[in-house]
Amino acid sequence: MISIQNLSFSYRKNKPLFENLNLQLEAGHIYGLLGKNGAGKSSLLKHIAGLLFPQQGHCKVMGFESRYRQPAFLQNLFMVPEEFYLPQVHIKGYLNTYAPFYPNFDRKAFHNYMEEFHIPVDQRLTEMSYGQKKKVLISFALAANTKALILDEPTNGLDIPSKSQFRKVIAAAVSDDKCIVISTHQVRDLDNLIDSIVIIDDHKIIFRQNVEAVTDRLCFKNVTNMAEAGNVLFSDSSIRGHAVITPNEGTEHSRIDMELLFNAVLEKRESISQIFN
Amino acid sequence: MEFKESQAIYLQIADHMCEQILLDKWKTEDRIPSVRELAVQLEVNPNTVMRTCEYLQQYEIIYNKRGIGYFVTPNAGKKIKQLKKERFLANELPQFFRNIYLLDIELDELKTHYEKYKKSHFR
Q: What's the total number of domains in chain B?
């Protein structure tokens, strides 16, 4: 569905952001894109959406080169950026203007999502708070029913109840023909939604595995004494004990601690990648 | 549903589904809620629920009617007990053995405790 080949890009000379970056993403999955501040998460998403152009290499979505922004491509891709602008109109006006660009737009679904988020539809967009606007945009994005859906930090600015509503609407939106990419720092908001983890660092993709493969090979546990843990690949200690990652030696699958995995991949890249090769 | 920290989500969902069957909320030969419905209700990825269904199907607790959905197997209760026993022996018992070994507790001593427990709780 999304295919990035040998992508190189830099905002300034001699300061490359991406160097020969490769990434393949398939339909039917929710990918979690993780990376440190400034690692290039948003820039990568913008390349996919055709908002930034590769200096070398290719970025294709459904066979279309993103940078050419052909209508058939734009009809089937929606991106919710982290920072956005909404015009000074009523929600109805917004729908009438923008929905026709998306042939699969489902108005009924839009109203259902708005209801799920408890947003009255008869409001002017400028009268709304940041969080409410974001929910309008997320509702629009889901209702647009595009094959590719890109969400940059979607839970930023959402209050506590809407995070749960967000998880419900995303869970309802996945289907075999859709590819959803979510970048996030708040992995705990989304860790049960994400089924594949993509980590970007050091100008390239350094980790890309589905949750099943991770739990097949790694075991996440909390121990009070490091001696109990056995062969520890990575650990993080706090008052509550030690959160550790060990190789999975045939025990029952454990729950992924995505924050711990992220830190482990960044700090112990060699030993972690060996396990997956 | 509140998820615990230690166990994979698909296994926790399996426990949750088995409980619905044991509590008779989902009856034998009933169609259980669809993968999508469960995913929305539990706020998880539908692929995770799918994995749970495959797992429970493998233990013959639910079965698939193509194009219709998953149904509760006759005798599901028995199969659930069998699965739980298997998982207990594989995962919790070694932990328990480790503790009693470290605390120098002999099996004979344990037996008296166990008899006492059964008497006060189940008779």
A: 2
